[in-house]
Inverse folding.
């Protein structure tokens, strides 16, 4: 029974891990930019949430919206001011810039907020739960999973049913040709990075409601983001959800047997999947 | 005043000079062909006009405005549209989505997806097909349709016949009259000399980055064109 409980909790946690990967994959998919600062974006958004909280007296879950909007802004600005200058055939310059950015952000956060562990106070919701078939299901994790799935669906619709989605996919295919039809590819990139940062912000706020964070948590978040994208296979939204679930379930089930292991077993499972299916889960389905 | 006027254009790829001061004029409603062998500089010329290639000297004037140093997406919005060499359709998009990207220029005009479907009825069944899974001829139709959906004032066509069967090329060129009737001027780059001459009012022949011949197509004999083409 405990095992089943861990699996259920792992699924709930795992969908959130899927969201970690979504922002990273979006940036890479459109612009071939690997955002090494993704982890720091995730953590920074939680700090922004903490700062805004006292000034915007709304329900903490709704605080995600203004934080995401602010994150969209700095993502857009980062792309416009820095990354657009180096984007191109060589993946190294953007990689180096985002790597440097991650170090700067991490240390800035320590300066401003110290290395103490914090979390976002969600009130009694954190402890609410209900019984179902002998299992205990937390309300907050369930709500978080609902929000995550909503975001995945929203992104899917954005990319397949809107004009922006069409132009973004075209720009990702061929940024030169899209200019022939009046589209400034650099602006598409700015919007894409903004969306990527906003997704990271949603993920950051949600995980901060479930667990604690400090400026160095970004490293773990980045690792999960990468693993989720790699397991899922590039270009597959639902592969990422599945990848996240695999990691989440592995993490929580392994805690039953080895309470101090942390994410180790999840990382091991990731490694095994990488060896067996280098192109990710979605490539297995395509075969 | 001509719709498009290029004056003393020199184009570079880094240290390499591809064009050495070429000039053409396209009047409103005219069809102008550019012929020449591989490497003569024809595609480079079109890329310079569209603004994709920015290493240039000289003047490009479109509808009275100097667009020599403008960015490509702004030039497109002024009404210059291109059917690129090799089609360059977007592989992640369906036929219909590819066509719709053309309308991103935001220009008003007679061309809509429905009208393109009337021009190329074969595309009707292929609307939701992924663009790269159709035949070369069909892809060319989509590329032309996409350029038309930008509602341009001038349509640049870069090697339309490349890689296509003669019957297919014929059916595509047959549509040019209808395209022209919409008021679009055409600047055509073609390796096939006969087709270029029969489709155009005026021709220019490029040879190694320079113009070796220009004038009304019917004014020249086969020998004269040959000499200008091959440089003998």
């Amino acid at each position: 029974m405990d095992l089943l409980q861990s699996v259920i909790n792992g699924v709930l946690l795992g969908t959130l891990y899927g969201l970690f990967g979504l922002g990273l994959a979006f940036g890479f998919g459109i612009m071939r930019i690997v955002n090494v600062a993704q982890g720091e974006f995730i953590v920074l958004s939680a700090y922004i949430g903490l700062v805004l909280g006292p000034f915007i007296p709304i329900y903490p879950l709704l605080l995600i919206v203004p934080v995401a909007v602010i994150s969209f802004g700095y993502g857009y600005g980062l792309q416009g001011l820095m990354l657009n200058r180096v984007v191109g055939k060589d993946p190294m310059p953007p990689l180096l810039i985002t790597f440097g950015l991650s170090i700067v952000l991490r240390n800035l956060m320590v300066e401003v907020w110290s290395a103490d562990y914090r979390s976002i106070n969600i009130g009694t919701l954190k402890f609410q739960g209900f019984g179902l078939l002998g299992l205990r299901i937390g309300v907050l994790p369930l709500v978080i999973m609902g929000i995550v799935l909503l975001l995945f669906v929203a992104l899917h619709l954005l990319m397949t049913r809107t004009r922006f989605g069409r132009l973004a996919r075209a720009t990702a295919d061929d940024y030169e040709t899209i200019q022939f039809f009046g589209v400034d590819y650099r602006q598409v990139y700015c919007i894409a990075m903004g969306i990527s940062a906003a997704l990271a912000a949603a993920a950051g706020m949600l995980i901060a409601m479930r667990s604690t964070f400090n400026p160095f948590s970004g490293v773990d978040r980045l690792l999960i983001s990468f693993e989720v994208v790699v397991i899922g296979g590039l270009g597959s939204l639902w592969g990422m959800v599945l990848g996240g679930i695999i990691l989440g379930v592995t993490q929580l089930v392994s805690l039953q047997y080895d309470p101090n292991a942390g994410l180790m077993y999840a990382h091991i499972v990731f490694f095994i999947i990488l060896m067996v299916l280098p192109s990710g889960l979605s490539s297995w389905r395509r075969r | 005043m001509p719709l498009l006027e290029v004056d003393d254009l020199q184009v570079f790829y880094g240290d390499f000079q591809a064009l050495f001061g070429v000039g053409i004029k396209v009047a409103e409603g005219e069809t102008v062909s550019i012929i020449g062998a591989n490497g003569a500089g024809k595609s480079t010329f079109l890329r310079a006009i569209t603004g994709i290639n920015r290493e240039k000297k000289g003047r490009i004037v479109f509808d009275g405005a100097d667009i020599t140093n403008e960015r490509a997406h702004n030039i497109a919005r002024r009404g210059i549209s291109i059917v690129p060499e090799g089609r360059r359709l977007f592989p992640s998009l369906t036929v219909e989505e590819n066509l719709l990207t053309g309308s991103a220029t935001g220009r008003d005009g007679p061309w809509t997806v429905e009208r393109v479907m009337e021009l190329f009825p074969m595309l009707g069944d292929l609307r939701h097909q992924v663009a790269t899974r159709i035949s070369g001829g069909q892809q060319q139709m989509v590329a032309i349709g996409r350029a038309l959906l930008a509602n341009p004032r001038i349509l640049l066509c870069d090697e339309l016949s490349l890689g296509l069967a003669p019957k297919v090329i014929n059916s595509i060129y047959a549509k040019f009259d209808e395209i022209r009737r919409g008021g679009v001027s055409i600047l055509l780059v073609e390796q096939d000399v006969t087709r270029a001459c029969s489709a155009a009012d005026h021709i220019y022949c490029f040879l190694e980055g320079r113009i070796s011949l220009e004038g009304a197509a019917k004014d020249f004999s086969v020998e004269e064109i040959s000499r200008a083409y091959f440089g003998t």
